[in-house]
Amino acid sequence: NPLAMRFIQDITIGEGESVPPNTRFTKTWRIKNVGGEAWPAGCSLRFTDGDQLSNHTAVGVGPVSPGSEIDISVEMCSPPDQGMYQGKWRMCNPGGNFFGDAIWVIICVEKGGVLAVTQQLNSSSFDFQNVNGESSANPFNMGME
C-alpha cells in the first residue's frame, strides 16, 4: 500500500499573488494523507524544480495518520527582479522516493505588491505607540481623532 498525499489548498500566498521584490514571506500549503497507512517519521517536503525561493530544500514532516490534514510552511524570499516565479515541491519518503501531488509556489514579483506587506503586519508582534503614548495593535490608529 503506497504512501499517498493530496494537495488541499494554499493557506498563504495563492497562485500568482503579487509580492514586492526582496520580501520575506511564509508559504503555507494544506495537504492530506489520502493513503491507507501513516506517513512515517523521516518524510519531508522537498523542492524539486523551478525557482528556488527558499534557503531550505527540504522541510521535515512528522508522522501523519491516514485521513489527516496538515499545514506545511516554508520561509521564502521574493527575487529582486519583477516577473513570475514558480517552484515545485513534492513529498518524499525516508528512502528518497517521491509520492503524492506536486505542489507549487507561484508568485508575481511587482514593486507595488501588497501581499507580503499585509502578511508582515499580521504576523508582527511589535507594539505601536500612538501620539498620546497609548499602546495600539493597529499601526494606523495613531490617536489623532
Explain this structure to me?
The strands form three sheets. The chain has a five-stranded mixed beta sheet with strand order 2-8-7-4-5, covered by helices on one side. A three-stranded antiparallel beta sheet has the order 1-3-6, with helices on one face. A two-stranded antiparallel sheet has the order 9-10. The protein has 145 residues and is mainly β. The chain has one helix spanning 115-123; strands at residues 5-12, 17-19, 24-33, 43-50, 58-61, 69-77, 83-92, 98-109, 128-129, 135-136. The chain has one helix and ten strands, in the order E-E-E-E-E-E-E-E-H-E-E.
Topology:
Elements: E1 5-12, E2 17-19, E3 24-33, E4 43-50, E5 58-61, E6 69-77, E7 83-92, E8 98-109, H1 115-123, E9 128-129, E10 135-136
Parallel strand pairs: 2-8
Antiparallel strand pairs: 1-3, 3-6, 4-5, 4-7, 7-8, 9-10
Beta fraction: over 45%
- Major β-sheet annotation: 5 strands, mixed
Number of strands: 10
- Overall 3D shape: elongated
H/E series, N to C? EEEEEEEEHEE
How big is the Rg? 19 Å
Strand order of the largest sheet: 2-8-7-4-5
Query: What oligomeric state do the depicted chains represent?
Result: single chain
Helix content: under 10%
Distance between the termini: 64 Å
Q: Structural class of the secondary structure composition?
A: mainly beta
List low-pLDDT spans. Answer: 125-130, 135-145
Please tally the helical runs, counting DSSP H or I stretches of 4 or more residues.
Answer: 1
Average of per-residue pLDDT values: 85
